[in-house]
Every structure is written in structure tokens, then in C-alpha cells.
Amino acid sequence: MNTTASHSSYVEVERHLVSTEERAWIRDIVSANPVWADVQLGELYVVAECTCGCRSVVLEAPEHVQNPRLIGHQGLVGEIDLNVRFDGREDVVSVLLHYAEGNLSLLEVVWYNFPEPVPRKWLELSRDYRIGD
Ligand SMILES: [Zn+2]
Q1: What's the CA-to-centroid distance between 51 and ligand 1, angstroms?
Q2: Full strand arrangement of the beta sheet holding 57-59
Q3: Cα gap 103→41, rounded to integer Å
Q4: One-letter-per-residue 3-state SS of 34-51
Q5: Are 112 and 92 in contact (CB under 8 A)?
Q6: pLDDT digits (tens, 9 = 90+) for 7-49
Q7: Which of 34, 54, 105, 113 is the least crowded, having the fewest Cβ atoms under 10 Å away?
Q8: How far is the CA of 14 from the centre of ligand 1 (A)?
Q9: What is the 3-state secondary structure (H, E, C) of 111-130?
Q10: What is the pLDDT of residue 7?
Q11: Spatial separation of the C-alpha atoms in residues 88 and 24, rounded to whole Å
């Protein structure tokens, strides 16, 4: 499992489909990366969540490898930096999509106000994409 120093307390949860918002983040990051853009993802399930309040979720490894070109590798598919407004202040929430062994493995949500929980809702002002290696 891929974690950072700032949050690493993942607990198993009942297997469930990713949310509409998570699905949209994943789709946008995947389609921005040429190594992933043509991959058929199918249904994606969450099997664990971070307990620190950051909204990071662990994705279930599917029956068939999503991106066989990347078996034996792990890294970052890409990242979205969301410039957001909530509670009358502006902030940046980063969403990072990791892979391991050719499968999407972790959707990590990070912000600089850790350990304050990441808000559930905000107004998105703009976003910047970065693709992984
Ligand atoms: Zn966390």
C-alpha cells in the first residue's frame, strides 16, 4: 500500500463503488496520461479508507490487470491540484492517483491544513493537472 508520512491509517471498509466525484477525478487523471488514456477501467471499488479525515481511498485490484504494460511497476498515474473555495477561504486540495502492478491502487487526497480534515464539499475555482512518470 502506498502512503505518505502525513496519513497512513487505512482501515478496511465494506467494498463499495467509488463515488461519482472520485470516479470523475480518476477518469480525468487517467485520460490525461498517455500511458493510461486507452485503458478500460470498468467498475472501480473502494476497499479501504484513510481514517485521518483526508478522504483518501484504497482501490480494489480487479480480476484482470488494468494496464499490463505496467506489471512490475508502481508509481503515480497523475495528480489534480484543485483550487477551491470553502468557508470563505481559498485553498488547494491535491488528488493523486497511484498504481501498483498495473492496477489503480490508491486515490490520495492531500492538503496543507493536515491534520484538519479535508472538507466534503467546496467550490472549485480552477484545476491543474500533472501526469506521473
Ligand atoms: Zn489520511
Answers
A1: 6
A2: 10-17, 45-50, 57-59, 103-111, 89-100, 74-86, 123-131
A3: 9
A4: CCCCCCCCCCCEEEEEEC
A5: yes
A6: 678 999 999 999 999 999 999 999 999 999 999 999 999 999 9
A7: 34
A8: 18
A9: ECCCCCCCCCCCEEEEEEEE
A10: 67
A11: 25
Q: Rounded to whole angstroms, how far apart are CA atoms 109 and 81?
A: 10
Question: Residue 117 C-alpha to ligand 1 middle, in angstroms?
Answer: 8
Q: How far is the CA of 125 from the centre of ligand 1 (A)?
A: 23
pLDDT for 111 beyond 60: yes
Cα 10 to middle of ligand 1, angstroms: 8
Nearest residue to 45 (alpha-carbon basis) of 5, 71, 13: 13
Residue positions counted in the chain: 133
Domain ranges in the chain?
Answer: 3-131
Q: Using CA atoms, how far apart are residues 21 and 13, in angstroms rounded to an integer?
A: 18
Percent of the chain topping pLDDT 70: 94
pTM of the predicted structure, to 2 decimals: 0.92
